[in-house]
Inverse folding.
């Protein structure tokens, strides 16, 4: 290598090669991978922050909150930053009211992220943050609260730990209530703050839709409190109250007992978490006589004044049918059959129209079809098709056994009579109010006429006889008002034994009976103290109806009471 | 840089000095050319250079530097103000969220107190009972609809009802928040609030005294003969009209 010229050539070649490599690399970085690398670099600076969407609220018909979402904080810790676990745990424990040792254990270790507590109120977090404890952080979250506690809990439902609906309308309307989360993108400087000149974009979260119910929380409260008292004093398994506005189909209250606290659904019996008024079906018993007798009157086969000769026992399809109290041969009017709740009289009346027509009327009253409230687990009830009827079907179905309904369906039958014979689909959700304020009303089925207005009016007069002297529910009467209703004491089918055990005591009524504005239905499942619908359901009906009449400002009509001849 | 600038300018004067093209020392050529054509020219004079070269460069540098300086300074200022703005946004946002949280907490507290269950508890604590028979008064005809009946339960002396002003004032004192804007009622003159409260107390005392004078034995039967209430008498004497006075 002594030749300087050769050396120069080699140097030139080597330099050339190196430069070529450099140039190639440059082209690769800039032209080939340029965009990818630039976006990777941006990705390192860019932070994407999800902006959680606020879950829609659930309101009562006056806009009072039944379920709302509020801000909350989850308390987190970076164990590597915690200097004095036991000391910090001590301070946190006094604020969080938990065991300091448990906290100390969660603060010890080398995990960078652990949860210490969830869903703290902002104030609690404020107090903790003021302590300036090293390694203690928080993350923003939200908390679903039910300000009125167990009020309407069985309708509203509850949410799980993740904030998603697990029961009731919270579950049924999950997609509607959940909004669309937004996001914020920004370039982050080394200090953690946003770089002012950096790229920024912000997509606002779209809050969920708010649901306004038809429920009146004051009536709901009274209904819930009253049925809870009656369930405990009659030692029943459960109880239900339905309050409806027959002119709109609006359900004003849907109370069940026992209930649960949606703020703490975990501690409740899982059977109490649903809504018995919608999910549980039962054989309606005597309250269903209303349908049979309305059908007979509507077909022109009898009037409230038609006389029936009631034998002590009636044999049909090889079986003996009798009334709840033994009697000799009675002469009762159709009104008397209703007032005294005679099974035999009802069978005799039903035979005037026949089974096929009866089954048609049941269908028109909505039996065997879902009430259409969109509630999870809503039952449709069951009524056998006419072609499958056995010889005993017709007499049994006539007085309300051998088919099943839920509480809302049973109340809806009375609402139809109260609404002059026109059946309206019951409503539970009044309006869906989107985040931008636009409201939409869920669609309902068209109203259907079941019986004529004249029939409805005559049947209502017969219902009034039930709460009058000689009827089965004089204790449901409200002084000053014309009230009508029907008692029911149905044998309850028990799925555990596959047999009939216990009863469902019920009373369904309306007021004012000459121009009904409210329907109240009361059901008590398997009472052990007391048995009859009038005796157990009557007082509950009276208390709830009395309150509802005042709350809805419905004065007495002032009309005279009708006094139909009952016979005896 | 300055050389390039000169070259650009030279073509503008070709008619005067065609020979000078490309020569930086243009003066000499002009002089020499003149001598060649007109040999007898009496005196020569110095032509000033086409441009004051040195001075031009200095000014230019100054201008550029100051432009640069001003630019840097304004970028600094803009950045500072942006950063300041970011801080302000941050501060305002945290203030906003604190206020939102406060609002939420207060709304939550109100909702809990206003829930039917809590209202009923408070009403019962005041000795109220649910009405068992709805009765309405038709204002146009004066007719009573429904059957009036005394409420069940034992009669108790009517607790002194509070006017909204009283309640707000009392609550404000309870919470140690006196003087803070807790609600519209608090905007009233405290003296007027006191006066209203005093007036309310006086009204009740007077009514009780009158009652006693008429029927000294019926200390507690305030409702006994209160079926007719002369609404014209006391309405308007207090702002809220919430002072219920059984009239003898």
């Amino acid at each position: 290598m002594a030749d300087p010229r050769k050396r120069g050539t080699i140097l030139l070649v080597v330099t050339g090669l190196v430069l070529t490599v450099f140039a190639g690399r440059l082209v690769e970085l800039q032209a080939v991978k340029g965009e990818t690398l630039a976006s990777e670099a941006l990705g390192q600076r860019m932070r994407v922050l999800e902006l959680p969407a606020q879950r829609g609220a659930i309101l009562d018909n006056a806009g009072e909150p039944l379920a709302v979402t509020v801000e909350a904080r989850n308390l987190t810790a970076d164990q590597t930053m915690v200097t004095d676990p036991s000391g910090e745990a001590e301070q946190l424990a006094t604020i969080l009211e938990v065991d300091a040792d448990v906290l100390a254990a969660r603060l010890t270790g080398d995990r960078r992220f652990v949860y210490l507590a969830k869903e703290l109120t902002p104030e609690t977090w404020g107090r903790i943050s003021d302590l300036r404890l090293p390694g203690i952080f928080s993350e923003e979250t939200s908390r679903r609260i039910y300000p009125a506690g167990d009020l309407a809990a069985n309708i509203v439902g509850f949410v799980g730990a993740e904030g998603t609906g697990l029961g009731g309308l919270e579950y049924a309307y999950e997609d509607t209530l959940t909004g669309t989360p937004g996001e914020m993108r920004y370039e982050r400087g080394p200090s953690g703050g946003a770089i002012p000149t950096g790229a920024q974009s912000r997509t606002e979260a779209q809050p969920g839709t708010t649901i306004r119910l038809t429920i009146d929380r004051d009536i709901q409260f009274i209904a819930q409190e009253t049925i809870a008292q009656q369930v405990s004093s009659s030692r029943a398994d459960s109880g239900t109250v339905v309050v409806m506005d027959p002119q709109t189909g609006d359900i004003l209250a849907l109370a069940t007992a026992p209930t649960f606290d949606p703020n703490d659904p975990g501690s409740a019996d899982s059977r109490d978490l649903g809504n018995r008024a919608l999910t549980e079906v039962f054989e309606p018993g005597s309250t269903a006589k209303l349908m049979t007798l309305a059908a007979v009157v509507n077909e022109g086969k009898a009037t409230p004044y038609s006389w029936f000769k009631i034998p002590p026992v009636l044999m049909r399809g090889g079986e003996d049918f009798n009334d709840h109290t033994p009697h000799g041969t009675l002469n009762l009017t159709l009104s008397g059959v209703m007032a005294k709740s005679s099974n035999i009289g009802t069978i005799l009346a039903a035979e005037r129209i026949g089974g096929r027509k009866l089954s048609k009327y049941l269908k028109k009253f909505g039996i065997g079809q879902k009430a259409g409230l969109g509630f999870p687990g809503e039952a449709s009830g069951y009524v056998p098709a006419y072609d499958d009827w056995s010889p005993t079907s017709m007499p049994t179905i006539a007085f309300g056994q051998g088919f099943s309904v839920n509480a809302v369906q049973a109340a809806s039958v009375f609402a139809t009579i109260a609404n002059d014979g026109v059946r309206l689909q019951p409503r539970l959700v009044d309006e869906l109010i989107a985040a931008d304020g636009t409201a939409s009303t869920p669609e309902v089925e068209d109203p259907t006429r079941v019986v004529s207005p004249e029939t409805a009016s005559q049947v209502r007069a017969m219902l009034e006889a039930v709460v009058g002297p000689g009827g089965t529910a004089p204790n449901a009467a409200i002084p000053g008002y014309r009230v009508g209703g029907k008692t029911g004491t149905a044998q309850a089918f028990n799925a555990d034994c596959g047999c009939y055990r216990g009863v469902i005591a019920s009373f369904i009524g309306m007021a004012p009976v000459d121009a009904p504005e409210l329907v109240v239905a009361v059901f008590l499942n398997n009472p052990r103290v007391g048995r009859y619908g009038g005796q157990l359901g009557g007082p509950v009906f009276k208390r709830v109806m009395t309150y509802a009449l005042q709350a809805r400002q419905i004065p007495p009509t002032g009309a005279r009471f009708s006094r139909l001849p009952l016979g005896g | 840089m300055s050389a390039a600038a000169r070259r650009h300018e030279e073509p503008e004067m070709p008619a005067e000095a065609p020979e000078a093209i490309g020569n930086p020392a243009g003066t000499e050529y002009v002089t020499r050319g003149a001598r060649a054509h007109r040999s007898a020219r009496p005196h020569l004079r110095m032509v000033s250079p086409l441009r004051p070269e040195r001075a031009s460069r200095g000014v230019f540098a100054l201008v550029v530097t100051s432009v640069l300086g001003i630019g840097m300074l304004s970028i600094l200022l803009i950045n500072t103000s942006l950063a300041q703005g970011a801080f302000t946004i941050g501060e305002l946002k945290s203030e906003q969220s604190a206020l939102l949280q406060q609002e939420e907490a207060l709304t939550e507290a109100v909702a809990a107190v206003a829930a039917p269950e809590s209202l009923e508890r408070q009403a019962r604590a005041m000795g109220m009972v649910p009405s068992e028979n709805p009765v309405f008064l038709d204002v146009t005809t004066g007719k009573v609809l429904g059957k009036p009946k005394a409420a069940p339960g034992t009669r108790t002396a009517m607790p002194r009802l509070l006017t909204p002003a009283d309640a707000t004032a009392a609550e404000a004192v309870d919470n140690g928040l006196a003087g803070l804007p807790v609600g519209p009622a608090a905007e009233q003159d405290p003296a007027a609030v006191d006066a209203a409260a005093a007036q309310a107390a006086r009204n009740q005392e007077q009514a009780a005294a009158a009652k006693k004078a008429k029927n000294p034995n019926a200390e507690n039967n305030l409702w006994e003969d209160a079926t007719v209430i002369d609404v014209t008498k006391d309405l308007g004497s207090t702002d809220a009209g919430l002072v219920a006075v059984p009239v003898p």
